[in-house]
Amino acid sequence: MKVAEVTEFGGNEYIEINEREKPEPGSGEVRIEVKAAGINFADIMQRRGHYQGGPEPPYVPGMEVAGVVDAVGEGVGREVGDEVMGFVEEGGYAEYAIANAAGLFDLPENMSFEEGAGFSVQFLTAHNCLFEWGDMTEDESVLIHAAAGGVGTAAVQLASNAGAEVFGTASTEEKLELAAELGCDHPIQYTEEDFVEQVNDSTDGDGVDLVLDGIGGETTTESLKALTHFGRMVSFGAASGEPGQPNTADLLFNNHTIIGYHLGQAMYRDPGRVFQAVPKLTGQLESGALEVIVGTSFDLEDAAEAHQYIEDRKSSGKVVLTP
């Protein structure tokens, strides 16, 4: 089978198209004929060698796919031919991938495989950060960074549908228009405006109740200045390449709370807490109350180009690969 393989840590030139043997499912596993694979910024961090606990080269990246069950192992309730979406530990950038059956969900009839490949990481991260970890309520306000990205487009919809006042940052007018269409009340072009000033001006200096920060670095530090007293920040990534460095004196003076969220570790240690949102999310996708925003689709052979596209901040919504 054809795979996109990371041969060394570094730039996207180390993604090569190679051939591997088709894998066989073990107990509790299924093999999926991959129709679409989601690309996440974590894939890029892993390729660079900057991801804690990430795989060592050579390896096939990719943690979420959508496709058709092709073979089943022992003790699996799935059948060959089932259309599914969900998680793979690695190996999603391939024509076939192995998944633990417990991490798969039925693909809704009204969703394409490309949309299915944009569900698992994005919508569970967004829902968990807003609600299970962030404890957001309908009368609160939230600042969502990268509001036009994969997690951002999911979080904007979920927060808006819940009745929250939504602030969102993005780099271009086009991205801000997308965020606004999805329910962002206060789109902020961070390349032209100081997002802290914009938030505080719009809240009479009070700040927001919750921040979702997948950026890290200076964004983390500045975001704390946009939080109200007793506000919370959920830190779920470091797309800037640098971890956030909060000032603990400011944290204690303002009674701020920073909550860490890592999807993979959360699924391993408390899967019930992570997955409890799935029935609600898939139901809203089926009804049209939510939608997976697929920005761009690349052929599997163009995986390196797809990584560069994301790194150049050209992407909106979810970027997927199709074998």
UniProtKB/TrEMBL annotation:
CDD domains: QOR1 (cd08241)
Gene Ontology CC entries for this record: cytosol
Keywords: NADP, Oxidoreductase
Zinc-finger in keyword set: no
SMART domains in alphabetical order: PKS_ER
Signal peptide (from-to): none
Record-given protein name: NADPH2:quinone reductase
Annotated source species: Halorientalis regularis
